[in-house]
Each structure stands twice: as C-alpha cells, then as structure tokens.
C-alpha cells in the first residue's frame, strides 16, 4: 500500500511542477504582451481630424530626419511625425485657424500662429500654420529660443501647399 501512495504523491508533484511551468510560461507571455502594448502605445500620437488628407502624407514624408540634432522617432498615427522622444511633435490635419490676434511668426515664407494661452499655462510652444490647407500643428516642449530653428527645418514640409491667406501686421492694415 505504501508504494501506491508514494507513486500517487510523485504524480501529484509532477502535476504541480508542470502546472507551475505552464503558469510561468503564461506569465512571461502576459508580461511580454503588456510590455509590447506599452512600447507601441508610447509611440502613438493622436491623429488630427483631417489627417487622412493626401497632403498630410506628403507633409510627413517631406519632414526632415533631424530637427535641432534630434532624430526622428518611430510614431504611430496618421499625419504625425515626432523627433527627440516626442520633444517635437508635428500633426497634420488640425483645424484651420480663424483670424486671431495671437502672435504670428513668418519663417521662410510660412506663417505660424503661436497658441499664447498654452505657452503661458503649460510652457509648451504650440504653433499652427496659417493660411494653408490642411493646417499643420507643431508642439515643442523645449526652450522657446529654439522654435525658430524648428520652423525653418519644416519649411520644405509645408511651403509647397498653396497659401490662401496670410498673417497681417500693423503695416498691412493702414
């Protein structure tokens, strides 16, 4: 009778060991799935409402490989490009701006309007092209002095789009 008990106990241990190996394997698979989801999700950028516009594909493909010595990142989203671990984010297809009194910066013939409220509240520079369709939005969380260099780098990405209006200054109104 003792031999049968030992045999059953051995089988029970084997089953527990097999179960624990299976449990470990499932745990590893679950961890890998979560890690991949986290990795992929960290590269996701919300697409703009009109990002499916064919011009947005050209804007993104014409965007430079480097901006301010920051390399272009792998990004998931239609009409998006990012650089430097998302220090610089470009989204094409955002809502076109209505006339505004916010600061307009013209860089190499392209008008960009600064969202002064976001800059004041969050310290983040958000600029949107003015007078071009679809509109392109640039978000930069670094020093404001570097924004001009970024806008200059993006010239060839957006200046090919026809301009239907432009920013006006005080000299233009009188």
Sum up the structure in keywords.
174 residues; 6 helices; 8 strands; two-stranded antiparallel sheet; alpha+beta; six-stranded antiparallel beta sheet
Q: Helical percent range?
A: 40-55%
Strand content: 15-25%
N- to C-terminal distance = 110 Å
Low-pLDDT sequence parts: 32-43
> What structural category characterises the helix and strand content?
alpha+beta
Pattern of helices and strands: HHEEEEEEHEEHHH
Spatial order of strands in the largest sheet? 3-4-8-7-6-5
Rg estimate, integer Å: 27 Å
Compute the number of strand runs: 8
Lay out the secondary structure.
Layout: H1 2-42, H2 54-62, E1 66-67, E2 70-71, E3 80-83, E4 88-94, E5 104-107, E6 110-114, H3 116-122, E7 125-129, E8 135-140, H4 147-153, H5 155-158, H6 170-173
Overview of the molecule:
The protein has 174 residues and is α+β, with helices and mostly antiparallel strands. Helix content is 41%, strand content 20%. The strands form two sheets. The protein has a six-stranded antiparallel beta sheet with strand order 3-4-8-7-6-5, sandwiched between helices. Strands 1-2 form a two-stranded antiparallel sheet. The termini are far apart.
Provide a short characterization of the protein structure.
The protein is an alpha+beta fold and 174 residues long. The protein is 41% helix and 20% strand. A six-stranded antiparallel β-sheet has the order 3-4-8-7-6-5, with helices on both faces. It has a two-stranded antiparallel sheet with strand order 1-2.
